[in-house]
Design goal:
The chain is of the alpha+beta class. It is built from 16 helices and five strands. Helix 13 crosses helix 15.
Amino acid sequence: MYRVAAGSPVPPGVAVAEGRELLVDALLGQLSEIAGSVREAIEAQIPTYRVLNSGTLEEEIGFQLERVLRRVLASARSNGAVGGDYELAELAAIGETRAQQGVPVDEMLRAWHVGIEVIVGYSRGVSARLGIEDAAVLEFVQSALGWSDVAMAAAVGAHRSAELALGFAEEEQRARFVRGALSGTIPADELAIQARAYRLDPDGEFVAVRALLSEESPQRKLEWLLGFHGADRPGLSAVADGCVVGFLREPPPRDLAAVVGVGPPKPVGRLAASYRLATRALTAIQACGLRGCYDIDAIGLRAAVAADADVGDALRRRYLDPLADGGSARELIATLRAFLTSGMHVERTATRLFVHQNTVRYRLARFEELTGSSLRDAEVLFGVWWALQLDECSRRNPQAEAPDIGGDSVAHRADPTDA
């Protein structure tokens, strides 16, 4: 095998493989210069790399180039064997580092291609100076590209794994912020700092939302429906106790194909109050078997009906259970419901039920007889309404006698300014 000093021409007749070895030796001798040129080219073409430490970047480029060149040299002597696990692990570590530095995988690939272009340019200049045959240069380039594919596969795999891990960590950190903001457990000064970090106005108002997860409404679909991924409705979300919880600048549409409770607008520092009312609204929605997006104003007294099952059960026993003794409980309950809906007007009630006015009067009198109460008493009317609401909710959603949507994990700190 011939050994030729760098800069000396190759004697005629030197084999292609030996010419390739001479080319690699010469490039290794210029490794520092080549690494600097690659760094400059990468920084010129890819802005992301300009924020990285130039000295560290150049050292890493030099390491990668040396690995490529020595692998090309080794493949010439071992009939194209690829690199060992140790070398690939070292290159994979660089891919992981790029992910941690925030360099996207496509820009990492582009930087690698820039480096290959620079080293190919150097190889042409060196081969021309040393008189190395074109066939040797071609084999060098092919071998370098082949090893580069193997190396980049390792780097890309590590980059994607690290990116996934970082994504999970970032998502969990965001979820902790959302839960802390909704529970009121983050100190005010820290809350403002974190809000700005997520590009949220700490002085702006947001509505808390709590939406029930289900097979028909999985997490990602529900987040899109609520508007958490829309640029025109900024906010953040997390998952807690079988619900998507979070806060938005504007409330979601009323007619959503989901079960959603929404609170009133509040500053970030008082989101706990909004979330508490969103939770109460959701409790009532679930108990009454409703669908859509409701706030506490839209739910009204049904929120109290859903929240206080003991009172509701007592009123149902007092005003509805005795009706079964007369054998016409269904007709009496339907008449009571229509009577209250019609503003307690007998004529309107009769029209609504398609019966004679005297039939309505008889049924109302029968109710008073069976329960021992008077519908002229406002307290009785309110109790009957409460019992009827609970009865309707129970019919719509038999499983919601005692609503439970798991409100303990995101605890609510009371807002003294919120009634």
